[in-house]
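Aim 2, interim progress. The first record below pairs a target sequence with its structure tokens.
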Amino acid sequence: MGLETPCTLERARRKTVGRALLEADHIAFRGKTRSERFLLADVARVEVQGNALMLDHADGPALLHFAEGMAAKWLAKIRNPRTLLDRLGITDQSRVVVLGVDDAEFVDQLTRKVGRYKTAPAPNTDVIVYGAESVDALSRLPELKATLVPNGAIWIVHRKGAEATLKDVEVFAAGRRAGLVDNKVSSFSATHTAERLVIPRADR
């Protein structure tokens, strides 16, 4: 995921202690008595004020008070976001297989980054991006695992939120049955999330 940091949210003269999570397109704040979600597209300006990050949001300004030095780190992350391919660990040398994912923006980024990619399982693959919307679809994991290089990864992409048809815990359980471990979750798009499954180090 993105950056996650303890902080205090100040908004409309009200302060709440919690944690802030930076995702690709938004900042989520979770406190015991209050939760907020700030879409970055709705933030007109972001700046550091002392140890706080000020969000000039469409619904009114908000301050995220961090420990010393963290506000500047957050600002740098927001102004220089990692691309989707960065988050998926795909470089211009990666051997990539894409199955069941037709997201136009992802395909465009991938084509520009690696050129050609495969749309069927192939030996010695570095990264498999697999679209799955049901537990039954995860039955292919043993087959896909067999095509990975030892330090390769399978990203399971599926819908999130109210439209989700697959739960992350179901992905993790299917991965364990296939001899894989989960070690990362990433936002894939506004509608989809992705979980990374890898071969345990002891088995490589």
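The second target in this work package is listed in the same format:
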Amino acid sequence: IGLLGLASLQTTGLAQTSEIRNRTQAILLIDDMFERIRANRTDIASYAVAAGTAPACDKDYAISNTSVATDDVAEWQNSLGCLLPGGNGVVTINNRVVTVGVTWATNTGSTDDGTVTMEARL
């Protein structure tokens, strides 16, 4: 019975470690978007990203050199798809207050997705 308890504890610990990694990655991706916007404040409105289907991961992604904001958003969405399971993001801009949210599919057996949202005045 003791060994079964330890095995269960080990399994739960591994799942929680994976979720902590996903949450940390989500926070880093949110910070990445804030920094992209800070570097291109004159085009802040172009960084809005509506909720939609989760982007796919393109391992051979290359920027298209259309505009800085368009390339930043496309690269960020590709990173969401590559770095988080079912990763998706939304960016809203309201009077220079930027809210960035990231969701991903959890692997803890829960039906809820993981979510991190942060807000900054830029």
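Helices lie at 2-39, 68-83. This observation will shape the mutagenesis plan for the next reporting period.
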